[in-house]
Amino acid sequence: MLSRVAERVYWQARYLERAENMARLLNVFSTLLLDLPPRTKLGWHSLVEITGTDEAFDAKYKQALERNVIRFLLSDNNGYSVLDMLALTRENARTTREIMPMEAFEQINNLYFFAKENLANGVARGPRHELLEKIIASCQQISGLMAGSMSRGAAYSFVRLGRSLERADMTTRIVDVGSGNLLPALSGADVLPEVNEPYENTLWMNILRSQSAYQMYRQNVKHRVNAEDVVKFLLQDEEFPRAVTHALVTLTKVLGKLPNNTKVSKQVEKTLRIVRQGKIDQLLDRGLLPYIDRLQLEIAMIHQEIAKTWFLPNK
Amino acid sequence: MRVNWKNYNPGNFYDEMISTPGYARQPSRRLASHLKSLTHEELLQKKLAAELAIKTMGISFTVYSDAGNIDREWPFDIIPRIIAEKEWNSTSLGLQQRLRALNCFIHDIYNEQKIFKDKIIPKELILNSSNFRKECMGIKPRFDVWAHICGTDLIKDGSGEFCVLEDNLRVPSGVSYMLENRRVTKRIFPELFEDDYNIRPITEYPDQLFDTLAAISPRPSDYPEVAVLTPGVFNSAYFEHSYLAQRMGAELVEGSDLIVEKDKVFMKTIDGLSQVDVIYRRIDDLFLDPSVFNKDSVLGVSGLFKAWVKGNVALANAPGAGVADDKIIYTYVPQFIKYYLGEDPILPNVPSFLCIDKLQRQYVLQNLDKLVVKPANESGGYGMLIGPQASKKELAEFARRIKADPRNYMAQPLISLSTVPVLCDRTVEPRHVDLRPFVLQADKSYVTAGGLTRVAMVKGSYIVNSSQGGGSKDTWIVGDN
């Protein structure tokens, strides 16, 4: 398989996964809004911080109002929005048409046109949920189509690499939602913990739901929804497909099918160790942020090793 | 809008479907009555379905414009064009005959040059051609074939007979649109495929192309490594490049994906370097290899030409094949057929006048306002003069150009191109068409069943090129039911 094509296939899968996860993030935030006490203000700015787009956002918008943040992450042309992720997915798919299943390209193409025509409407709360659900479902449909029609050769391996790595990264960001300064009004020292509690639960429950993880959590974790168990589940569960550990284990399996994988495998093993050994209870007490940052850095290193090994033209 | 054939009037032109208002020619009769039976809504629905299918399938081409390159959806008319199988069979023989003769000619001028010695064509005419590559002298490609893929433009004249307008031997495009047009038509007129017509399938083309390419591989093996070399995603035919690579299961490569070592060509893959046997190149000769041709080319691969000369990689079409893709050489093709094959041409040329010949040039200059003047080496319909539609200023300008460089021009009478019905906003109207079948040659030869029908979508226009507002149609070769 050509290095250039491998790179495009990998990015196509990453962008598709990122579009889906971005839609999921926007959905949690929007749903969360409805469950919080009327006077609570959501920290919308944290959404652009979590996605690492705060600089670009601040350059364009003065205030982190809901409609600004949503527009920025949903339909603006800025290289970060769901719409742009889908455009990039399409562009990469268009330039790898010769090896991807034809139907996959058709679906990606359709999804892009749908997004282009409709996503701007999602700035309004009314149609937003339905639109995001449709985006999420379509992304999953495309992933399913590739799973059902691609031979398990190099091309599909790069799809899985891209998807799993992006998923690991985005799941750490979604965990960030829960641990960050999302609820400024509720996190002040003058608020009694027992007042806070129902909303904390709501928050974590929504986070689980955003990852379609609520049911699986319920079946596998016998405790009620609480910060520690949810974070453990999303970061360390071996069996749940959107959990970071599971995504990294998938990577190790895929890597076994690719040539010259030693360096990449080492980096994945290292990242896996850090995830598995994280003491979540202690981390939550001290603040999860530095740990999540570290994880994101290690994940970025995995990408760099992948690029060095397979994408950079040999000689 | 309901189709009423009585209101359909092609005027003095030969219409391929309707002979006189209200009456369809034999092979088109069932199509004509089927169209008539559809309501306005049904017709509109089919048109929309076609547009949607084209958008979904991502069938597009690129238009270069000042505002940047735009990826446009492929313009398509839903009414298929019908050609009787019997007529097509002899046309197809004529096309194969023509390509065989052209290949003999190309091989001859790069080797023995018998044709000059026998004074069939003046030597200077060839050696001065901008598509003649002196670097190719003495090379003997497999089967002595230089042009493996040819797109021949056919038109029907006022009497409804096919004749050859030009031979495209460099990097002819359009075959993917031919294939996609059929896919779209199957989606919108399944009823006609089922019962009414016995339509020759065209889906085998990518397999035939692969076989042709595999046959010229220098490394005999069951699975030659075939690659399609594209200039990249910004090229107007990128859709086709990726489409053909996909359908053949070949690698789609750009110049930067390839490297030449020890006169062998390799692709850069995730496993390291992997040798390439056959390259179906979709970039022009001059950009193929910066070490031999255009030094500034970033599209090509340094050392590629030498690898080909040494016989370590096959190139289709071979460098230098374009020498026969010249509108002046075109006028000699009937003579080539007689000279090399000892046969009579099955397909006629359009009558042509050579400006390099004094008498013919005089005639051309005196009758510019009645003729179509073409430069020798332009493609895509650029640089042409259509006399009857030109202004005084344009006529004067062309007279000047012809006198300055007669070798570079030829002229043809304005052929009354045939028409076919096209679905317009409110009605069905006649529009001019041509046909580009694709001809393959290696160890054996092959012609597509039909080809790409291009339509001049503007009323009265003769310009069918997609780069200049042309559209297309599905083309049916129809046998007896």
Description:
The complex is a heterodimer of chains A (315) and B (481). Chain A has one domain (3-311). Chain A is built from 16 helices and no strands. Chain A has helices at 3-35, 45-50, 54-60, 66-74, 82-94, 102-118, 125-149, 154-179, 184-187, 193-210, 214-220, 227-236, 244-255, 262-277, 280-286, 289-311. The two termini of chain A are 16 Å apart. By secondary structure, chain B is of the alpha+beta class. Among the domains of chain B are: 5-86 and 175-202 and 436-479, no CATH class; 351-414, Dna Ligase, domain 1 (2-Layer Sandwich). In chain B, the strands form 7 sheets. In chain B, strands 5, 8, 20, 21, 24 and 25 form a 6-stranded mixed sheet that branches. In chain B, strands 7-6-22-23 form a 4-stranded antiparallel sheet. Chain B has a 4-stranded parallel sheet with strand order 10-9-14-15. In chain B, strand 12 (264-269) and strand 13 (272-275) form a beta hairpin. In chain B, helix 2 (40-57) packs across helix 6 and helix 3 (85-110) packs across helix 13 (333-341). Chains A and B meet through helix 1 and helix 6 of A and helix 2, helix 9, strand 10 and strand 12 of B.
Q: Proportion of β residues of chain A?
A: under 5%
Low-confidence regions of chain A: 184-195
Largest sheet of chain B: 6 strands, mixed
- How much helical structure, as a percent, in the residues of chain B? 25-40%
The shape of chain B, in one word, is globular
What is the overall pLDDT average of chain A?
Answer: 88
* Strand/helix succession of chain A: HHHHHHHHHHHHHHHH
Number of alpha- plus pi-helical segments of chain B: 15
Number of extended strands of chain A = 0
Low-confidence spans of chain B: none
Multimerization status: heterodimer
Radius of gyration of chain A: 19 Å
Strand content of the residues of chain B, in percent?
25-35%
Q: Class by helix and strand content of chain A?
A: mainly alpha
Main sheet properties of chain A: none
